[in-house]
């Protein structure tokens, strides 16, 4: 069949370019020590930064939530799917971020992808100028396309370039959108400078804090706490399947912004609500994040980051400068990167290779992610294996 033959040829082209993706099957809970495709592995690939995905309190809360609310929600939030657990979670999230947002309210989404599509398609629009960071996540790129706004892309962390674009804009609605922690580089956006520009030019600043919420800041309030930011111009998106260990995402902003999303965000209005048990489990996750245990877990992640920067020191490859749990090692070529990942796998370590189009051509990399659940011995094993593979 010609249609299938065409797809097979295109898949072959992906193979030759070293770009074909493959699924792996994990038989164990999300944790550093996992059984992957039937083999015991030490994983440095999860975004479970605080090690909460298998936390007994959260697992028990999920069971309790399912017992109380059942397995599913049955409808969208605006029909009959908005449970007491969803409402309590939104209230807790708004209160948690209250030091950084004016008159805050929160709205829970099933995924961060849906939240970002909603934000850009609803806050921006055909007559808006939308200013996007060059390295924004795919969900923000797709949200920008969906918005049908006049999109302007500014170079990575280039405040001067963004200022020129904002100064030249005559649009009534201006929206700047950026990741806080860039998921493939691990570095931070210059949020204080971005916010100052937005306040000066009357623009919204949308912050995708997927990789900062729960990890950054003394209390885990993410990039806003890390930089001590507070402004009515801020619109904040945080995910709850990474450091929070469960699933979903939320938008927090001034109550008027959230009410507008509630009325116009198609990815919220026309999606079945996530199971209430998930929201119930997230209440337990928030308790841990905002506790002494959460602080201790954040401190442990930071100790891992400092140790890796001090001891890994590759010779041919490049460990990118990152103060976050995301620690990329640039190799360059796609095939060499995937061979390095395979060599690590032979040694029992799961470190994913990242290739274009996720990262620019010529910058394929191994993406190490660190968790509070990793032990000192786990890091020793990672460092030793990297040295062996690089010099092989």
Describe this structure in words.
With 392 residues, the protein is of the alpha/beta class. It has two domains: 22-44 and 293-391, Aspartate Aminotransferase, domain 1 (Alpha-Beta Complex), CATH 3.90.1150; 56-289, 3-Layer(aba) Sandwich (Aspartate Aminotransferase, domain 2). The protein has helices at 2-16, 56-69, 77-81, 84-96, 112-123, 138-147, 159-168, 191-201, 223-226, 255-264, 266-269, 276-289, 292-311, 334-346, 376-391, and strands at residues 33-36, 39-43, 104-109, 129-133, 150-154, 174-179, 204-208, 234-239, 249-254, 318-319, 326-332, 349-350, 353-354, 364-369. The longest helix has 20 residues, at 292-311. The protein is globular and about 60 Å long. The mean pLDDT is 97.
Mean pLDDT across every amino acid position: 97
Count up the domains.
2
- The strands making up the biggest β-sheet line up spatially as 3-9-8-7-6-4-5
pLDDT < 50 stretches: none
Structural class: alpha/beta
Order of helices and strands: HEEHHHEHEHEHEHEHEEHHHHEEHEEEH
Largest sheet: 7 strands, mixed
Task: List how many beta strands DSSP finds.
Answer: 14
- Based on CA inertia axes, which overall geometry fits? globular
What is the count of DSSP helices, taking H or I runs of 4+ residues? 15
Strand content: 15-25%
CATH topology of the largest domain: Aspartate Aminotransferase, domain 2
Rg on CA atoms, Å: 21 Å
The top-level CATH class of the largest domain is Alpha Beta
The first-to-last residue Cα distance is 44 Å
CATH architect. name of the largest domain: 3-Layer(aba) Sandwich
- Approximate helicity band: 40-55%
């Amino acid at each position: 069949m010609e249609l299938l033959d065409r797809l097979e040829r295109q898949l072959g082209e992906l193979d030759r370019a070293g770009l074909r993706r493959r699924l792996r099957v994990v038989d164990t809970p999300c944790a550093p020590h996992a059984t992957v495709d039937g083999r015991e592995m030490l994983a440095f690939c999860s975004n479970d930064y605080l090690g909460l995905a298998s936390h007994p309190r959260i697992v028990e809360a999920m069971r309790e939530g399912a017992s109380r609310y059942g397995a599913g929600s049955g409808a969208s939030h605006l029909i009959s799917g908005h449970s007491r657990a969803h409402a309590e979670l939104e209230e807790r999230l708004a209160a948690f971020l209250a030091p950084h947002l004016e008159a805050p309210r929160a709205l829970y989404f099933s995924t961060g992808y849906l939240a970002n599509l909603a934000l850009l398609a609803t806050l921006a629009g055909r007559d808006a100028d939308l200013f996007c960071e060059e390295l924004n996540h795919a969900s923000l790129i797709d949200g920008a396309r969906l918005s049908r706004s006049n999109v302007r892309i500014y170079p990575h962390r280039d405040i001067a370039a963004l200022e020129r674009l904002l100064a030249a804009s005559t649009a009534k609605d201006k929206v700047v959108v950026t990741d806080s922690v860039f998921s493939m580089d691990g570095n931070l956006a210059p949020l204080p400078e971005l916010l100052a520009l937005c306040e000066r030019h009357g623009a919204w600043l949308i912050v995708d804090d997927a990789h900062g919420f729960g990890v950054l800041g003394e209390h885990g309030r993410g990039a806003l706490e890390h930089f001590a930011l507070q402004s009515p111009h801020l619109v904040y998106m945080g995910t709850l399947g990474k450091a929070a260990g469960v699933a979903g995402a939320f938008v927090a902003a001034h109550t008027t912004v959230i009410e507008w999303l509630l009325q116009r965000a198609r990815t919220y209005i026309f999606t079945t609500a996530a199971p209430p048990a998930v929201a119930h489990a997230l209440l337990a996750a928030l308790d841990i994040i905002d506790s002494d245990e959460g602080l201790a877990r954040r401190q442990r992640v930071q100790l891992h980051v400092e140790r890796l920067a001090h001891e890994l020191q590759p010779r041919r490859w490049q460990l990118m400068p990152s103060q976050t749990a995301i620690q990329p090692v640039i190799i360059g070529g796609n095939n060499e990167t995937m061979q390095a990942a395979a060599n690590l796998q032979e040694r029992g370590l799961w470190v994913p290779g990242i290739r274009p189009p996720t990262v620019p051509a010529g910058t394929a990399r191994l993406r190490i992610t660190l968790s509070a659940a990793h032990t000192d011995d786990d890091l020793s094993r990672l460092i030793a294996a990297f040295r062996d593979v690089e010099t092989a």
